Amino acid sequence: MTQDINPNTSNLCHPPFTFNLNSFEPGILRAESFKEGVLWASHSIGTSGKAAKVKVEPDFTGRRLKADGGDIIFILAFITDMEGNIDINYSLPVLFEANGNSFLIGENTVSAEAGIATIMLKEGTASGKINVKASSSDLLSSEIEIFSEK
Fold first, then answer.
1. Structure confidence by residue, pLDDT tens digits, 117-144
2. Superfamily of domain 53-148
């Protein structure tokens, strides 16, 4: 394990680490945090199986979407196996579609990187429902409803 020190990480309070492995076995990686000997937090992630579906999510960054013509949010499409594990090797194009009082910024087809494709959505000036769909190849597509307000 080595700490990643470079111009992008030198000013971070908690710089990332790289784990150099001699071999790899599929399974579950679990991280646990203890406070005064008591389990405080935990997180698990499993090795993904074959890519099976697209899971689309908005990134509101803790704010509501305002219908003022100026709000922009990221829309993320996660390529996952049937259990919801992200397939980090997936790099094929993902097609985004949106309807409602909004539009996608840039090309509607974005290649996934490490199993995630991202596009920006700009809200118009009328409040209401926005539908966003993401699809890729032969995978199960995903659609979400987003609501904007005045």
1. 999 999 999 999 999 999 999 999 999 9
2. Immunoglobulins (2.60.40.10)
